[in-house]
Design goal:
Blueprint (H helix, E strand, L loop, with lengths): L5 H8 L31 H22 L25 H4 L13 E2 L6 E2 L1 H7 L5 E6 L15 E6 L5 E7 L15 H7 L5 E3 L13 H7 L3 E4 L4 E2 L11 E2 L2 H10 L13 E3 L12 E5 L12 E6 L4 E6 L2 E2 L1 E2 L4 E2 L1 E2 L1 E7 L2 E2 L7 E2 L4 E9 L2 E9 L7 E4 L6 E3 L3 E7 L4 E6 L1
Parallel strand pairs: 3-6, 4-25, 6-7, 10-24, 18-25
Antiparallel strand pairs: 1-2, 3-5, 4-5, 8-9, 11-12, 11-26, 12-13, 13-14, 13-17, 15-16, 18-21, 19-20, 21-22, 22-23
Length: 421
Amino acid sequence: MVGFSMAKVIEIEEGKEAPKIEEKGVDKTTQSPLVKKKFNPKALIFPLVAILSLVGIGAFYYFAIYKLRPTPPSQVVLFDRNYISPKSKLHSFVKQLPLLSQPQEPRTEESPLNGLLFTKKEMEEMRSRRPVAVMTNNHVHARSASGYNSADIVYEANAEGGITRNLAIYWSSAPDKVGPIRSLRQYYLEWLSEYDPILIRDGCAESTNPKANACGNVYAYGIKDISTIGAWRWNDGRRVAPHNEYSSVKNAWEYGKRMNWNSFPSTVQSLEFKNDADMANRGKKSIVKTVFHMRLNNGGAYDSIWTYDQPTNTYYRKVGGKNDIDQETNTQVTAKNIVIQKVKMSGAADGTARVVIPTVGEGEAVILQDGKIINGKWKKASRTERTKFYDNSGNTIKFNRGRIWISALPQSDGKFDIIEQ
């Protein structure tokens, strides 16, 4: 120890009183206790800043460099923008986003039947099958019918006794259940010949008059007829034969493959089509009524009423004063175009109640579309040629894309009324 001798050190260790040491710079005459300095908070600023800086540097290194270090090239997964790597670890908010679906193919292919648009792939599939014609019952005890809202075209005309029957043409869709099916009449046979279809029917009209002999002509024309093959009876607790027999368009196509009837006929002629009119160019409201037989009092059970709906540019059907419902879709029957085809009708003079309705030739027609009423004509050059429609100036009618409903109204017995326009 500096300033002490060894003896003095030993004395201190043995407990002897240590000598008083004079402190330099201290006044011996006024020896008083030392005064403590006051605390200065400014003295902590520099140490605190230094500590925070060190913490910040450490946090930056850990989170910005260590945690987010680049992925080694050997672990990089390359993929295009339509592919998501299964190795990716997505954040929770990304996982909630829906994956992008494959871009849809544009609908550029037009149906020659009613102008609906399809993709090239869809049209390729459709052209591998034939249209299917279904003779459909419209008796009051057969309602509601199945399949009308899946049909491309529907024909409506008198059968006998003021009772109407409908011929539905299917191609763009394949209902599992259509009907009830009933027997064929000659004029329906001539209308369906325009599509060279597979025919579903139950029976046919026999007559000594060749203009009414559907049974003989269905074979003479070489119609691809399956009649009731694949049909069944369905009982819902209120329908009875002959108002409860049904068939399937899918079944008809399967049968068609076995018979090599699985291609769209090249002879089918197309109508002309257009897009729906803009809202500003549509009619506001129209309600029309068709009466198929005025001389026979059936209480209006077969009268049809069509009501135009401007927002959807669609016509809704009532029959017998009630909404006509498609039983399979539970929706009211609709059409984009209504054609009132005025025809001649006469008795077959064969000792039966059969009627003759010529389909080849020309006559007056009224076309309902876009909420407007167009007066014009219809023309059909032969049994197999498509019926065409024109306005009074001779211009070809361009139909809206969608279901076409053709009502063959007899000039002598039928009536077309505009209820509201």
